[in-house]
Design a protein that fits this description.
The protein has 404 residues and is of the alpha/beta class. 35% of the residues lie in helices and 17% in strands. Strand 3 and strand 4 form a beta hairpin. Helix 1 packs across helix 2 and helix 3 packs across helix 4. The longest helix is centred in the first third of the chain and has 20 residues. It is globular.
Length: 404
């Protein structure tokens, strides 16, 4: 990814639940309202099928009782997101919004919610999985006697899936829905993928393609000789490390997320950290977007605040690229890229993140701003094509030169 194509997201700021800490931004455009949303209770008991059935049965009972059938949807907005400093994760609060059938402004979304819920229930019961794109077509049809479609674009069905996730407290993957594979993995690990044994030590240059659904009923970990996990931002850097057999020399599980780590990669990292008891290191570009990628892996994201407990890795270690690496590794000035106005604005916003309030992170970001430049990981190649695998990362690990 070239510097010209890199865009730092314009996400909103979560509020902190620590009353002694000011309300902080999580990539926001405005200051959130005062007061903290109470975190919602986790998790709703019962199987996915049971929870989907209960939602439909409640609507039926409401109709039979002469009431307006209504679904309560947890609010996925800035005002309902908080940062828990004790857990060091972003959480969704307990605020909800009603979605009723007999309401002109809500009827369409109520219908869409029930359609998607019904389709997901059928999927789980059949033991089949499908893509979120397929689900759009499965649930799309013209309403009898009208010219209206249940869905006009996938942009309508995707948010309904997310609403359903948070309503029944289940990942979309638990509802047998998946997105396209993104990311690859190699390393000192043997796993089982839907019954097939995969030795990640013997997968050549391409590695194992990380699927969207990586729950324990699909992916099981077997023999693990690794001592750590390294998540890199870019496929090109991952390929360099794989070709140089960095993972073999240092007993590493090496994976990439092809930019912002997708849900499957983040969930897999979470599982490996907790089940294999391995530390997670993150290697990203030295720019606001790279820092944001790390923060999503570490604390979770606004959009998926309701799943932070199953995706975020608060103990994740930022191993680079650091703003201090230019001097520390004597990188030439011609490999740096000038920060633009957007970079400056985003970096200043990130200085106010609750999880970046610690002095080492304040120094890191202020150093980038004072230098006025950013660096891509590939800038290390100016010192030699194998510098990242043979000098940079080994030294970082040896010196324990990372931030948390």
């Amino acid at each position: 990814m070239t510097a010209a194509k890199r865009k730092t997201p314009r996400a909103p700021k979560p509020r902190t639940r620590d009353s002694d800490t000011p309300a902080r931004r999580a990539a926001a455009r405005s200051t959130p309202p005062s007061g903290a949303a109470r975190p919602r209770s986790r998790r709703k008991p019962g199987s996915v099928v049971t929870k989907l059935s209960d939602m439909g049965n409640r609507a039926v009972r409401q109709i039979q009782g002469g009431k307006n059938p209504t679904v309560q949807i947890p609010t996925r907005t800035l005002s309902n997101v908080t940062f828990d400093p004790k857990r060091s994760i972003i959480e969704l609060g307990d605020q909800t919004q009603s979605r009723a059938l007999f309401n002109v402004g809500q009827a369409r979304k109520f219908m869409q919610t029930m359609l998607v819920a019904s389709a997901c229930k059928d999927l789980v019961e059949s033991g089949k999985t499908t893509s979120i794109r397929d689900l759009y077509y499965i649930t799309k049809h013209t309403i009898q006697g009208t010219k209206q479609n249940t869905f006009d674009e996938q942009e309508e069905s995707d948010p309904i899936i997310e609403d359903l996730e948070v309503t029944i407290d289940s990942l979309r993957e638990e509802m047998h829905l998946f997105a396209s594979n993104r990311g690859a993995m190699v390393g000192d690990l043997t796993l089982v993928d839907t019954g097939d044994t995969i030795d990640l030590r013997r997968l050549g240059s391409g590695g194992w393609s990380v699927p969207s659904i990586v729950e324990a009923n699909v992916i099981q970990f077997k023999r693990c000789d690794a001592k750590m996990i390294l998540l890199v931002e870019k496929d090109a850097v991952w390929r360099r490390l794989n070709e140089d057999k960095f993972w073999k020399k240092h007993k590493v599980i090496l994976l990439h997320g092809n930019g912002m780590a997708p849900r499957g990669v983040r969930r897999l990292c979470h599982r490996m950290v907790h089940e294999l008891k391995l530390p997670l290191y993150v290697l990203v570009d030295n720019d606001p977007w790279g820092f944001y990628i790390y923060s999503v892996v570490k604390q979770g994201s606004i959009n998926l605040a309701y799943e932070s407990l199953r995706m975020a890795v608060p103990q994740a270690r930022f191993i680079g690229l650091s703003s201090f690496d230019v001097e520390k590794y004597d990188l030439p000035s011609n490999v740096s890229i000038q920060l633009d106005e957007t970079d400056h604005r985003r970096a200043k916003q990130m200085l106010a993140y609750p999880w970046f309030e610690r002095k080492p992170w304040q120094r890191e970001m202020k150093k980038m701003l004072s230098q006025g430049v950013k660096l891509e990981i590939e800038a290390l190649s100016s010192k030699g094509i194998t510098f990242v695998s043979e000098e940079y990362l080994p030294r970082k690990l040896r010196d324990r030169d990372f931030l948390t």
